[in-house]
C-alpha cells in the first residue's frame, strides 16, 4: 500500500426494505443496464467515489452521511469510503472490509464479496488496489478533501481538477447528464416511493396544524412520517409562516389564526431518490378572501403549466406561461396595472414571482446541479440576466422520462418590494396601496412532481390535493376535531 495513502474507517450499509431502487427487478440488472447505456456514450474507463463521513466536532461524532449521487446511480448502494471503476458493462468495486474494532461500534456488516454480488460487480478489491487497477481512469473531480487525498495518492495525480471545470472531463459530465436526465423504471419506482411518503407527511402536517403552537411542531410531525418509513429528508425542510423567505430553515415562529403555513418538504429513499412537494395552507383552516384570491392565481398557473407540460415543449415556455397567468391574475386584482404580456416582458411579475417554475428531480432534488447548468441548460444556452429569468434552473425541451417539478408562487419579499430601484422602475405598474390590502399573504407556493410521458405528463404527487376547498377540508376537519 502506498505510504501516503490516508486511511479512513468504513461503515458499510446495504439498505433493506423501503427505498429499493430496482422495484420488482434485480438491482444488479438495473445497474448493468445503466453501465451499458453509459458505454454507448463514452469509450474510456471511469472512476466514481462514494465519499466519506464528516466529523462534527470529534472523529466518532459524524454528520449524517450521504453518498455521492453519481456513485449511487451506478453502484446502487450508499456505501462509505468506496469507489467503482466502470468500463463497458463491467463494474469493479474497491472497498475495505470492516475491522473487528469497527464491528464493535457499528455491528456486523456485509463482506466486500457480498456487496459486490449485490451490485453485480465483476471484481472486488480493497481500496489500495486502486494504485494498480485504476490508473488512467476519468474522474469527475471531488470536493471531498479525503477523497482528493486518496485520488492524488492512489492514482498518482498532482492535482484534482474541480467538478464542472473547463479543464475537467466534459465528455464524462455530458454523458452522465444525458443518462440521469431520463429516469429508468428502477429510478421511477424509488421516486414514487419517496413521493408516497411525502404525501402522507404533508397530510400529517395539515392535520397537526390546528393544535400546533410553533412551526417546529408542524415540521416535527411531518418529518416523523418520513423517518417512520426509514427515509430521510431530501433537503432541509421549509415549514414556515414566513413564506416569502424562499429557503427558510428556521422553525421558531409561532403559528396562529390569520397565518398561511408554507411547507416545502420531501422524503428521500434510503438509496438517495428524492421527492419535492410544497403546499400552502391556512393555519385557521380557512383562507381569508385575500389569501384565497392569491392562492387561486398561483393554482391556476400551476394547473395550466402541468396541462402544457409534454414532450418537445420548451421548459422556459412553461415558466413564461406561469409568469403570464400570475401577471394576468394580479392585474385582475388591481395589484398590477397594464397589459399582462407587456408586464412580463418588463419583468414586473418577478416582483412577486422571482424564481423559476421548477427543476429536474431524481437522485438530487435539483438533479445533477453539481455540474452547474450543464444539466439544466441545453447545449449552447446560457442563463439570462433578466430579473424574471435569472433564476430559471431548467431551459431545455422536455423529453419522455424526465421528472420535473412545477412550482409557481407569489411572495411579498420586503427586500424586493422596498428596493428603491424597483419602486422607481415599476412605479406606474404597481398599485402599492392596493397591494397593502393583501398584507396577510407573505408567501404561497404550490409544487408537484411530474413525469413526462408519451401522452403528456403524469402528476406523480396527485394524491395530495391542491384546491383551496380541499386544503381547507384537510386542515379544517382537523381543527374541528380539537374544538
TrEMBL record:
Keywords: Aminopeptidase, Hydrolase, Manganese, Metal-binding, Protease
Superkingdom in the source lineage: Bacteria
Signal peptide (UniProt feature, chain positions): none
Organism per entry: Phormidesmis priestleyi Ana
SUPFAM superfamilies, sorted: Creatinase/aminopeptidase, Creatinase/prolidase N-terminal domain
Record field: catalytic activity: Release of any N-terminal amino acid, including proline, that is linked to proline, even from a dipeptide or tripeptide
Annotated protein name in UniProt: Xaa-Pro aminopeptidase
GO cellular component terms, semicolon-separated: cytosol
Coiled-coil annotated spans: none
Disordered: region residues: 1-25
Gene3D superfamilies to which the protein is assigned, alphabetical: Creatinase/methionine aminopeptidase superfamily (3.90.230.10), Creatinase/prolidase N-terminal domain (3.40.350.10)
Domain spans labelled Aminopeptidase P N-terminal: 26-148
PANTHER family associated with the record: XAA-PRO AMINOPEPTIDASE 3
Amino acid at each position: 500500500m502506498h505510504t501516503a495513502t490516508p486511511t479512513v474507517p468504513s461503515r458499510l450499509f446495504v439498505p433493506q426494505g423501503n427505498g429499493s431502487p430496482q422495484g420488482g427487478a434485480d438491482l444488479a440488472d438495473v445497474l448493468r443496464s445503466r453501465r451499458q447505456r453509459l458505454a454507448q456514450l463514452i469509450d474510456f474507463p471511469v472512476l466514481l467515489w462514494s465519499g466519506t463521513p464528516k466529523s462534527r466536532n470529534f472523529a466518532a461524532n459524524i454528520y449524517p452521511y450521504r453518498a455521492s449521487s453519481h456513485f449511487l446511480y451506478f453502484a446502487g448502494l450508499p456505501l462509505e469510503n468506496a469507489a467503482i471503476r466502470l468500463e463497458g458493462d463491467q463494474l469493479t468495486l474497491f472497498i475495505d472490509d470492516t475491522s473487528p474494532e469497527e464491528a464493535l461500534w457499528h455491528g456486523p456488516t456485509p463482506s466486500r464479496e457480498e456487496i459486490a454480488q449485490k451490485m453485480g460487480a465483476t471484481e472486488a478489491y480493497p481500496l489500495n488496489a486502486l494504485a494498480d487497477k485504476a490508473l488512467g481512469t476519468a474522474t469527475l473531480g471531488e470536493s471531498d478533501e479525503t477523497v482528493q487525498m486518496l485520488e492524488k495518492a492512489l492514482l498518482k495525480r498532482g492535482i484534482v481538477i474541480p467538478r464542472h471545470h473547463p479543464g475537467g472531463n466534459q465528455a464524462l459530465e455530458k454523458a452522465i447528464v444525458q443518462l440521469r436526465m431520463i429516469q429508468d423504471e428502477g429510478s421511477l419506482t424509488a421516486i414514487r416511493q419517496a413521493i408516497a411518503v411525502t404525501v402522507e407527511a404533508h397530510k400529517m402536517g395539515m392535520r397537526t396544524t390546528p393544535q400546533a403552537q410553533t412551526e417546529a411542531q408542524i415540521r416535527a410531525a411531518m418529518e416523523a412520517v418520513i423517518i417512520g418509513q426509514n427515509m430521510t429528508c431530501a433537503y432541509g425542510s421549509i415549514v414556515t409562516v414566513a413564506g416569502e423567505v424562499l429557503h427558510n430553515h428556521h422553525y421558531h415562529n409561532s403559528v396562529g389564526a390569520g397565518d398561511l403555513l408554507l411547507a416545502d418538504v420531501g422524503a428521500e429513499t434510503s438509496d438517495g431518490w428524492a421527492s419535492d412537494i410544497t403546499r400552502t395552507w391556512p393555519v385557521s383552516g380557512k383562507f381569508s378572501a385575500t389569501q384565497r384570491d392569491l392562492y387561486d392565481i398561483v393554482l391556476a398557473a400551476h394547473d395550466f403549466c402541468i396541462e402544457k407540460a409534454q414532450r418537445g415543449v420548451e421548459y422556459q415556455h412553461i415558466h413564461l406561461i406561469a409568469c403570464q397567468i400570475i401577471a394576468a391574475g394580479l392585474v385582475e386584482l388591481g395589484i398590477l396595472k397594464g397589459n399582462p404580456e407587456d408586464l412580463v416582458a418588463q419583468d414586473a411579475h418577478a416582483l412577486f414571482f422571482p424564481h423559476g417554475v421548477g427543476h429536474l428531480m431524481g437522485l438530487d432534488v435539483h438533479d445533477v446541479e453539481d455540474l452547474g447548468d450543464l444539466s439544466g441548460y441545453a447545449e449552447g444556452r446560457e442563463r439570462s440576466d433578466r430579473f424574471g429569468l435569472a433564476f430559471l434552473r431548467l431551459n431545455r425541451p422536455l423529453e419522455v422520462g424526465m421528472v420535473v417539478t412545477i412550482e409557481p408562487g407569489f411572495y411579498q419579499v420586503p427586500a424586493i418590494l422596498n428596493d428603491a430601484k424597483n419602486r422607481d422602475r415599476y412605479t406606474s405598474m404597481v398599485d402599492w396601496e392596493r397591494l397593502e390590502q393583501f398584507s396577510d399573504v407573505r408567501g404561497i407556493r404550490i409544487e408537484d412532481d411530474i413525469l413526462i410521458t408519451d401522452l403528456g405528463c403524469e402528476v406523480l404527487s396527485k394524491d395530495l390535493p391542491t384546491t383551496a376547498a380541499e386544503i381547507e377540508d384537510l386542515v379544517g376537519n382537523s381543527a374541528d376535531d380539537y374544538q
